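Protein Entry — a single chain follows
Next Lines — sequence and tokenised fold
***
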Amino acid sequence: MRVTAVLVAYNRKELLRESLEALAAQTRRPDRLIVVDNASDDGTDAVVEELLDAWGTDGRNIRLDKNTGGAGGFAVGIAAAVADPETDWVWVMDDDTVPTTGALEAALAAHDRYRASGRDALAVMGSRVLWTDGQDHPMNTPKAKIRASAAERQRAERTGGMEIRSISFVSAFLRAARVREVGLPLADYFLWNDDFEYSARLLRGARGLFVPESVVTHKTKIRGSSDQDPGPRFYYEVRNKVWVFRCSDALHGWEKVLYIGATARRWVRTLLAAKHRGQLLDCLRRGWADAWGAKPRPTKDVLRNTGVPIDVMVELERLTAREHARVG
């Protein structure tokens, strides 16, 4: 299996250094590394150039002219990865994600066990995500598949994992063949829920596996979920979650009903616990209005004139045709 790692960076050069050094130290090193720099202005470019030297022609730095958010950065990096016809898996992460040395080896070993036990319909794998204190990070808890059959659950357990329905982009392994079939993340999401929508889209009609033996550390400032006093970013939570329910075919109808109920409860908890409730109420109002006022634009349109290299833009346009056919 040939693996391309994709890391999206923005103004966290010291954490980025840790992440890149951890990728280079893997017991089973990725075959290629692509860094997407979202127009950082803190010296990130110098760190990337320094540490990519060790990768030679297997390393690539894509520096964008504009900050396209995590959603845009991952769309660019994934497109660049699957443009290589030999890539089998795309390993995605943010610049504050530090993999343990055996993270990739453990994921590939789980895949080997999975395909040895039957038909290989595995489209997504996800690592166990810890915080700096060694505890599981609540922001990156994988969502189990609600109606997984007994056979699906047993097969995942025999493999050493759990059948999942979605995963965060903090150390997710995406099957390149499935990406080429389904398309890319939606760059117009900018941040939040882009990974939820995209992984659920990849996994509709396919299998996903949580691999607890593949471990990474997510070095966020606090150990908390994304709804813990989110501030102005709550706008993206509201707009993008409504877009998932309104525009995407990632979820079945019955799944949307369950997730809408869970989302409403989560928003109420967030508002009740917020220090600046007026700010969140304004985000709720604007996010709701914008979500119903327009649909997400095609990713190729969002990323045009952002500094995407020509060869990657060609792949973006090809994959966006498939993406947009499935998301309105």
User: Anything to note?
Assistant: The chain has a mean pLDDT of 94. Strands lie at 3-9, 32-37, 59-63, 89-94, 97-99, 122-130, 143-144, 162-166, 172-175, 207-218.
